[in-house]
């Protein structure tokens, strides 16, 4: 009698323990909160001995009415890429951090929260997540002074990269910093002049703003690369190490789904549309022929890939890089 009492109590205790376990686990599984947080926006690649880190500044949507082409063709090209709303086509902004082993060079800097709304301006958090600090950057190279490339160098009137010299083609600095040209600019373009001038001011005051004119190598293995048309001084950068190379091409194209198959379709953002189209056409012929790796500010993140001639014989395909580990 005594034994059976103990036994039945034990069984009851075990049953209650199980019941408790199920009661505790089952609802928690059903109610696991969603995390709503993306992975950090950086991606690493090696070009010879140089480490390249793609840094995501954020994303936004482009209204493709700013493209210059037949709207029906544009719509059908977008639909082929599963973009069904021509007023809202996904686009990203990224910059590239190059560690040569002796210099840390940042090519472009995102919008810094000065343009494009709160979905841009994430470069700094991603630079830090990638293991670097802004004070480690020795040199900032800008492809051009549009707000989504130069806006990230300043905050509250101060330099974000306190030890960096900032360099860009002189023609771009002359244009975007000119008070006369600013005064004549259309109202909706004035923000681009303001951001460029606000970005430049603290670096000019510190003697760290250095426009350049030639095309000589700036640091060993990083040289300017002429890509004219988008802005008066728009310039890419060719990174070369141990026989490998990467062209940081800035704003050669903005809407992958449209401008790769039809590079003759321009965009409002180009200062000199005809030259930008001619430059893009010639550059794509060359890059498809020699398989050069490209780092593109507005191709889907990380914006690293190559172009190849399309099987249709018209235009090009963007071939993104494969996610790889680095040694
Ligand atoms: Zn841009």
Automatic annotation (TrEMBL):
The keyword Hydrolase applies. GO terms for molecular function: hydrolase activity; metal ion binding. Gene3D superfamilies: Ribonuclease Z/Hydroxyacylglutathione hydrolase-like (3.60.15.10). The keyword Signal applies. Residues 92-298 form the Metallo-beta-lactamase domain. Keywords: Hydrolase, Metal-binding, Signal, Zinc. SUPFAM superfamilies: Metallo-hydrolase/oxidoreductase (SSF56281). Residues 1-19 form the signal peptide. It holds the Pfam family Lactamase_B. Belongs to the metallo-beta-lactamase superfamily. This is MBL fold metallo-hydrolase. It comes from Duganella vulcania. The lineage of its organism: Bacteria, Pseudomonadati, Pseudomonadota, Betaproteobacteria, Burkholderiales.
